[in-house]
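Why Rho-GAP domain-containing protein? Reviewers of the renewal asked for a concrete example.
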Amino acid sequence: LGLVGLFQSKSTVRLKEDMKKIAALPLNKQRDTTCPKVFGVSLLELQQQGLSKNGIPIVVWNIVEYLTQHGMTQEGLFRVNGSMKMVEQLRLQYERGEEVELVKDGDVYSAASLLKLFLRELPDGIITSALHPRFIQLYQDTRNDMQKESNLKELLKELPDAHYCLLKYLCQFLIKVAEHHVENRMNLCNLATVFGPNCFQ
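Here is what the prediction returned.
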């Protein structure tokens, strides 16, 4: 919950404009003919392969844009699992470098499940394993909230750039999801319960 609050006021307009230019191209035009993996590889590797921009993997940006337009009021968003068959089909399309149209090829729950799958399969998670003990120690700290928030900001700066950018982008999106909690039944506590295991492996 503290992570989400830190990023609440940051602007993503320029990032969105950059990503839209990339996302407008079919994925098979964005990568070379060897079709490098999209799932289960590090954020740095995705950057090196040209499959991310400003630290945001293109597959994540595509899913978030789709859910922002079509899923914000869907009850149980991220809590209700999508069709395993459809999730696997979408994953294979991304892995093969095919153009994926989530509006046509997927649905809200499957796209949400695909996003969680991507995060789970990051080799070192969004919150890198080396920092896990310090995040847990900070959570258990009994000092006042202002001091904890200050310490949290400092700790976040130690994340690798690509991990920080993705975490920031994800938190900004989850804030928007929580704003529709009356319809989707996903307040910040519910979202934290779902995404905690996907961020801390």
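The chain has 13 helices and two strands. This is the kind of structural detail the renewal will allow us to pursue systematically.
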